[in-house]
């Protein structure tokens, strides 16, 4: 409870004594590259395989002459949009980006780089953390969209290559009974998770005390706490919006 | 001149500074000395405003920095340069960007003027052709030099150094010490150096404040320090065999 209060105060501190818009713009672009561009490869690999595996396992479970094969891709589609792309990828994102943010800020804290900023009169919380959160809010939804496409593509390739269903059926299933709201829901989740991962990891890193060992602990605890927050938020959003 | 008035500070109920008062004059190197863990860094952080003291206040040339209004604080901050223990260079920026950073933040100088100033400061600390190097490629001594260049780049009036020669070999230590002293005289600034190195004390200590367990026990110059009559300070000075030999030769 106390740490939630500290977390909220930390968030509030980002909006006092701010630097110029140009400064934040440049920093946000830099962070976007780190957070977004550098995560493309891992996202591509994980999501393609997830789509492929989901297709195989759904096909394995649905072998029955009474169920048309396009149901397989329909299931793959809904799982991808509702859970795999936004939520499971958020766990991957926490592991990649969250640990990176906490490690970077933790190192800056213990090597007094944060003090150096403060001595120059810069609000270090705002200068360092705000660009990371904005970059995360911009880039993570884009990564989720990419992951969604690649997951469906991975499923398609598996379906065709292993012959569990035809490409035509796969596409038919993907289009069948498509609910547009699910995509919006996925993007809302993506924004929530993007914020949680960036903010929690920044908080953990920023308040690191001690030495290199503690930086490692901060990284670990950033990932653990981000994952818990993601899953809790996932549950709450599903209850609220579905 | 910086005046420290009755500063006390504690962390979560544990008091680490007890009613410290002192004066640091302009154009001389002022040292704060004492064993590890006596509160030197905490005192320095209270002086530069990284920590808010529980009691007491600090004035910079008569201007109240601790309880003064926000604009005054910002003005004074612009005149402060600080060298941190490990250099505290920004890992993601190269040497040139590190030194230029305060100018980007605190001034509206055009780029070529900033570059001139950066190169001037780098030359002043005897660093050339390292502009594009990253901090991880520099030796400990070079990092300190870059840290000094960054601390003086905005024409700082007040220079603070926390353990400028920790982690350096004796020879590099002396070079860095002398560099700090030269810069202090050349630019006529007020310099405060935290150290536990007796070499620095004898080499550059115009004024010395000795701290012991959060209290200021002795002040004076390096000529007077050998004959001080404070037991804790004597223990500190003569922990060093060389210093003991020196005392025996004197008497
Ligand atoms: N952020 C902090 N929180 C709690 N205690 C601290 C903090 N910083 C310093 N201390 C304590 O204050 C005392 C003085 O530390 P410091 O000023 O760093 O000593 P030194 O003279 O070696 O620079 C030490 O006992 C240290 O444990
Ligand atoms: Mg110290």
Report on this structure.
The complex is a heterodimer of chains A (242) and B (251). Chain A is an all-alpha fold and 242 residues long. Chain A is 83% helix and 0% strand. Chain A has one domain (20-241). Chain B is an alpha/beta fold and 251 residues long. Chain B contains nine helices and ten strands. Chain B has a six-stranded mixed β-sheet with strand order 6-7-8-3-9-10, sandwiched between helices. A four-stranded antiparallel β-sheet of chain B has the order 2-1-4-5, covered by helices on one side. In chain B, strand 7 (158-162), helix 6 (170-186) and strand 8 (190-195) form a beta-alpha-beta unit. In chain B, helix 3 crosses helix 4 and helix 5 packs parallel to helix 6 (170-186). The longest helix of chain B is centred in the last third of the chain and has 17 residues, at 170-186. Chain B is globular. The interface between A and B is medium-sized, with 13 and 20 residues. Bound molecules: adenosine-5'-diphosphate and magnesium ion. Magnesium ion is lined by residues 40-41, 162-163 of chain B.
Which helices and strands appear, and what pairs or packs with what?
The complex is a heterodimer of chains A (242) and B (251).
Chain A: H1 2-13, H2 21-35, H3 40-61, H4 70-110, H5 113-119, H6 124-162, H7 167-175, H8 180-206, H9 212-241
Helix pairs in contact in A: 2-6, 3-4, 3-6, 4-6, 4-7, 4-8, 4-9, 6-8, 8-9
Chain B: E1 2-11, E2 14-24, E3 29-33, H1 40-48, E4 55-60, E5 63-64, H2 70-78, E6 80-83, H3 95-106, H4 111-124, H5 140-152, E7 158-162, H6 170-186, E8 190-195, H7 198-204, E9 207-212, E10 215-220, H8 231-237, H9 241-250
């Amino acid at each position: 409870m106390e740490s939630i209060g500290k977390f909220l105060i930390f968030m509030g501190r980002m909006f006092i004594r701010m630097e110029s818009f140009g400064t934040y713009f440049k920093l946000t672009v830099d962070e976007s590259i780190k957070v977004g561009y550098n995560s493309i490869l891992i996202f591509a690999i994980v999501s393609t395989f997830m789509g492929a595996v989901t297709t195989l396992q759904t096909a394995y479970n649905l072998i029955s002459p009474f169920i048309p094969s396009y149901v397989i891709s329909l299931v793959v589609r809904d799982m991808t949009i509702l859970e795999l792309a936004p939520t499971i990828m958020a766990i991957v994102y926490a592991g990649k980006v969250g640990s990176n943010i906490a490690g970077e800020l933790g190192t800056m804290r213990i090597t007094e780089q944060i003090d150096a900023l403060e001595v120059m009169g810069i609000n270090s919380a705002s200068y360092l953390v705000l660009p990371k959160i904005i970059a995360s809010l911009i880039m993570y939804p884009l990564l989720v969209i990419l992951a969604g496409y690649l997951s469906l593509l991975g499923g398609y390739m598996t379906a065709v290559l292993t012959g569990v269903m035809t490409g035509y059926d796969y596409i038919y299933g993907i289009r069948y009974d498509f609910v547009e709201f699910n995509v919006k829901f996925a993007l809302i989740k993506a924004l929530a998770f993007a914020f949680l991962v960036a903010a929690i990891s920044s908080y953990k890193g920023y308040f690191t005390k001690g030495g290199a060992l503690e930086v490692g602990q901060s990284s670990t605890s950033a990932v653990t706490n981000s994952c818990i927050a993601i899953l809790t938020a996932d549950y709450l959003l599903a209850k609220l919006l579905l | 001149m910086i005046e420290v008035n009755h500063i006390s500070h504690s962390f979560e109920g544990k008091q680490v500074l007890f009613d410290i008062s002192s004066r640091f004059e302009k154009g001389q190197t002022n040292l704060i000395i004492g064993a590890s863990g006596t509160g030197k860094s905490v005192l320095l952080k209270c002086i530069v405003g990284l920590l808010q003291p529980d009691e007491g206040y600090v004035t910079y040339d008569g201007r109240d920095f601790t309880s003064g209004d926000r604009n005054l604080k910002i003005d004074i901050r612009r005149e402060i340069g600080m060298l941190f223990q490990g250099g505290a260079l920004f890992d993601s920026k190269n040497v040139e960007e590190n030194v230029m950073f305060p100018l980007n933040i605190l001034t509206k100088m055009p780029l070529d003027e900033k570059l001139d100033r950066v190169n001037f400061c780098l030359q002043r600390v005897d660093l050339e052709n390292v502009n594009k190097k990253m901090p991880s490629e520099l030796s400990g001594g070079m990092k300190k030099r870059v840290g000094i260049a960054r601390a003086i780049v905005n024409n700082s009036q007040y220079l603070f150094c926390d353990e400028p020669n920790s982690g350096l070999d004796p020879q590099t230590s002396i070079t860095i010490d002398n560099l700090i002293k030269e810069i202090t005289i050349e630019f006529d600034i007020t310099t405060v150096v935290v150290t536990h190195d007796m070499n620095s004390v004898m080499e550059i200590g115009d004024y010395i404040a000795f701290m012991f367990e959060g209290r200021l026990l002795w002040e004076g110059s390096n000529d007077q320090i050998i004959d001080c009559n404070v037991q804790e300070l004597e223990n500190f000075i003569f922990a060093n065999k060389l210093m003991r030999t020196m005392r025996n030769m004197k008497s």
